[in-house]
Design goal:
Blueprint lengths: L9 H12 L4 E4 L11 E5 L9 E5 L5 H24 L2 H9 L4 E2 L2 E2 L3 H13 L6 E4 L6 H10 L8 E5 L5 H9 E2 L11 E2 L1 H4 L4 E5 L6 H13 L1 E3 L6 E3 L3 E6 L3 H6 L5 H7 L2 E4 L10 H10 L8 E2 L1 H9 L5 H16 L4 E2 L6 H4 L7 H7 L3 H19 L4 H8 L3 H10 L4
Length: about 425
């Protein structure tokens, strides 16, 4: 595997962006390019002792020597940061890279089997222009996934517009989405384009679409079906070309059955469904995520977790998912001050004092190891859910709040058919 597999560093992204504004493209290479010998390329090795080995290059035949020297300075800064990150990669990440598993995808971090399935699905979804529905609990990264889909799509160079449907009342959301004409209501002192117009030819991410009122659902359905809409208070029909990605943490199928969500809109946005796993379903990613969040503070305050602290983070249930973990890591970095090691007593009380619910199975398994206790709890809960729903995996998955694909994998793992 290339040495840069899974690499996602802020310094590297910043240097790449600066060079692109100059019309130059940064390249990660396995060995020093021959062009560097003739000043037609700038090159910074990852290892100062191996100037012929892997590094970062920019092929710039049209630049003067002073300009090449300036580019070289930026590459050296990026190479130092990359080399530090590679040295400090956790064993889990190095093993994932060596095995060919991806540890990241357009800013998404994770190497668990459920994440590999997600990456494969996004590979297929990205190049299409179809509507996507992302489903997952709060904090699982729905907006991050929507940005990854946009980044992998033909519309990547167009606008990516985001709105949260639960952040506005009905009237404000109507104006926010579709715009309004001057005088349409009190305070409408000028014509205003809506977000659908702003997102024209790009991607529009509608977060928490399950909180949208039935009246607005009709208007969104019209945009999806015909690509047309009217501003509030206007009779002129406008046309847009927008790819819609919707997201929700609610059970839209149950809402349809209860008459709370339009069935025709549900099937129109459910063209491609992307279920996101909760953090408790991919606990093996917790060390990787912790290291990723710690790396954001590495340049100012290098830190590592004490073994007891890491163990408690791995055992916790994480109801707030990745967002909760990110906030906890930031809190730990601040509280640790200048100390290089973060102790377990700095953890939030809810995490430090948390322990899994005691049951006969888990208590017996706990006498062995934490992974055995977790497996025992999973086996018991999945078996009970399958029994409650007479072997119906779809209903059992909804009951357990996991994806059907992940439930099938666990049923096979524990031989619970």
């Amino acid at each position: 595997m290339p040495w840069w597999t899974g690499l996602d560093l802020r310094v590297l992204r910043h240097v790449r962006a600066v060079l692109r504004r100059r019309g130059l493209e940064l390249t990660l290479v396995e060995r020093r390019p021959e062009e560097a010998e003739t000043k037609r390329a700038a090159f910074a090795p990852l290892d100062a002792a191996d100037g012929k080995g892997p590094g970062i290059a920019v092929f710039a035949p049209a630049l003067s020597e002073p300009e090449v020297a300036l580019v070289q300075l930026m590459l050296n800064e990026a190479a130092l940061d990359v080399a530090d990150a590679l040295r400090e990669r956790r064993p889990e990440e190095r093993a994932a890279a060596a095995s060919g598993r991806r540890t990241s995808y357009h800013g998404i971090c994770g190497a668990a089997p459920t994440m590999q399935e997600l990456y494969d699905l996004l590979d297929r979804i990205g190049p299409s222009d179809a509507t996507v529905l992302i489903q997952g609990e709060n904090g699982t990264g729905k907006e991050l996934v929507s940005r990854a889909i946009h980044a992998a799509s033909p519309r990547r160079d167009r606008k990516f517009v985001v709105t949260n449907c639960s952040a506005f009342n009905d009237n404000l959301l109507d104006s926010e989405l579709f715009g309004h004409k001057r005088g349409a209501f009190t305070g409408a002192v000028a014509d205003k384009p809506g977000l659908f117009e702003i997102a024209d030819t790009g991607t529009f991410f509608l977060d928490e679409i399950g909180d949208m009122s039935p009246a607005l659902q009709v208007k969104v359905l019209r945009v999806l079906q015909e690509g047309t809409f009217n501003r509030v208070g206007d009779t002129e029909t406008r046309r847009v070309d927008v790819r819609i990605i919707a997201a929700t943490n609610r059970d839209l199928a149950a809402m349809v059955a209860a008459g709370q969500f339009r069935e025709d809109l549900y099937y129109r946005i459910h063209v491609l469904a992307v279920p996101l796993p909760a953090l408790r379903e991919r606990r093996e990613d917790i060390p990787l995520l912790v290291e990723y969040f710690l790396s954001r503070h590495r340049r100012a305050r290098p830190k590592r977790l004490a073994p007891e602290c890491a163990a408690q983070l791995g055992a916790y249930a994480w109801p707030g998912n990745v967002r909760e973990l990110e906030n906890e890591v930031e809190r730990l970095v601040v509280l640790a001050g200048d100390a290089p090691t973060i102790a377990a007593d700095l953890l939030s009380p809810r995490i430090r004092q948390w322990s899994p619910p005691a049951t006969e199975d888990t208590a017996e398994a706990a006498n062995g190891s934490l992974p055995a206790a977790i497996e025992a709890l999973e086996r018991r809960m999945i078996g009970a859910a399958m029994k409650r729903h007479n072997g119906n995996k779809t209903r059992a998955a909804e009951d357990l709040k996991v994806s059907r694909r992940n439930l099938i994998r666990l049923v096979q793992k524990y031989q619970l058919e």
